[in-house]
């Protein structure tokens, strides 16, 4: 006290400092997990929480309408689908429709796809009863060598995304439009399209998240730009399956600023899968 008086302080009292941190109870577990995941992925939380128009409720089921085949689909492939509408399954399967054994047999049938000549294709991997189904363009040569989709740097990003929403690879299903690395001159064939559509139909997921414009266009069967597809809710298979188009993992690795878009899309898919 004498020391304080020497400094010219004649009176003082202890002041209670109010905590500035919000009550943890005010935040839901999902919000806490989301903030932590955004930090782990080096995403600005303010950007990551930015709303997206596709976050709105998905439209009610409506009758399917005819749409253009995905870009790159050969005229022959489109003609095959028109002549044989059963080549694309619906979400409700029956005993007469292809099963997993039939798809695996189709995959190894000689000549089923010109792009797979001399290469062992990858049908897909993961839980065949999963709520989540992810689609990429095609496996890389490294993926084929290792027998696993997304085995490189893109796979590390993919695993981080799964961990952000409490998932692992064995709890989701991962597939691709092409089942092997396609040459530049080869476009989507009827067999590739048929395999992917029937995989989605057999898994019957709650949500399909596509990586990249080509994968989105192939699943949705539309020629629109990726950002247009991202801006509105999408459905397929008699509107039973929600589709969330997102940016490609390779694009995110090249342009890290795209992580914010990827995170927004992942949150949208999370709400659909857990709604």
What can you see in these coordinates?
This protein is an alpha/beta fold. The protein has a domain at about 125-275: Uracil-DNA Glycosylase, subunit E (3-Layer(aba) Sandwich). Helices cover about 40% and strands about 10% of the residues. The protein has helices at about 1-5, 30-40, 45-50, 75-85, 100-105, 140-145, 155-165, 190-205, 215-220, 225-230, 250-255, 260-275; strands at about 125, 130-135, 175, 205-210, 235, 240-245. Strands 1-3-2-4-6-5 form a six-stranded mixed sheet, sandwiched between helices. α2 runs antiparallel to α7 (about 155-165) and α5 (about 100-105) packs antiparallel against α8. The longest helix has 15 residues, at about 260-275. The model is unreliable at about 10-35 and about 45-95 (pLDDT under 50).
Helix content: 25-40%
Instruction: State the end-to-end CA separation.
Output: 63 Å
Beta-sheet strand percentage? 5-15%
**Assigned CATH superfamily of the domain at 123-275:** Uracil-DNA glycosylase-like domain
What letter string, H or E per element, gives the SSE order? HHHHHEEHHEHEHHEEHH
Global Rg: 24 Å
Uncertain spans: 12-36, 44-96
| Number of distinct helices | 12
By CATH reckoning, the class of the domain at 123-275 would read Alpha Beta
Give the beta-strand count: 6
Query: Structural class of the secondary structure composition?
Result: alpha/beta
For the largest beta-sheet, the strand count, sense and barrel status come to: 6 strands, mixed
Net shape:
globular
Overall pLDDT score? 73
């Amino acid at each position: 006290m004498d020391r304080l008086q020497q400094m010219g302080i004649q009176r003082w009292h202890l002041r209670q400092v109010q905590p500035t941190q919000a009550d943890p109870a005010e935040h839901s577990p999902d919000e806490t997990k989301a903030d932590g995941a955004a930090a782990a992925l080096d995403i600005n939380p303010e950007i990551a929480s930015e709303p997206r128009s596709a976050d709105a409720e998905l439209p009610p089921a409506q009758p399917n309408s005819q749409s253009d085949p995905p870009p790159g689909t050969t005229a022959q492939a489109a003609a095959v689908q028109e002549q044989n509408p059963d080549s694309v399954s619906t979400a409700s399967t029956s005993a007469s429709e292809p099963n997993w054994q039939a798809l695996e047999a189709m995959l190894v049938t000689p000549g089923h796809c010109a792009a797979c000549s001399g290469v062992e294709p990858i049908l897909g991997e993961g839980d065949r009863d999963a709520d989540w189904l992810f689609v990429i363009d095609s496996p890389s040569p490294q993926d084929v060598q290792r027998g696993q989709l997304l085995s490189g740097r893109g796979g590390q990003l993919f695993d981080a995304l799964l961990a952000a929403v409490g998932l692992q690879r064995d709890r989701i299903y991962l597939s691709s439009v092409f089942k092997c690395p396609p040459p530049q001159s080869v476009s989507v064939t009827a067999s590739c399209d048929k395999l992917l559509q029937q995989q989605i139909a057999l898994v019957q997921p709650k949500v399909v998240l596509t990586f990249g414009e080509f994968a989105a266009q192939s699943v949705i069967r539309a020629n629109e730009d990726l950002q247009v597809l991202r801006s509105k809710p999408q459905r397929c298979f008699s509107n039973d399956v929600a589709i969330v188009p997102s940016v490609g993992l390779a694009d995110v690795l090249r342009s890290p600023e795209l992580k914010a878009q990827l995170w927004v899309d992942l949150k949208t898919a999370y709400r659909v899968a857990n709604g």
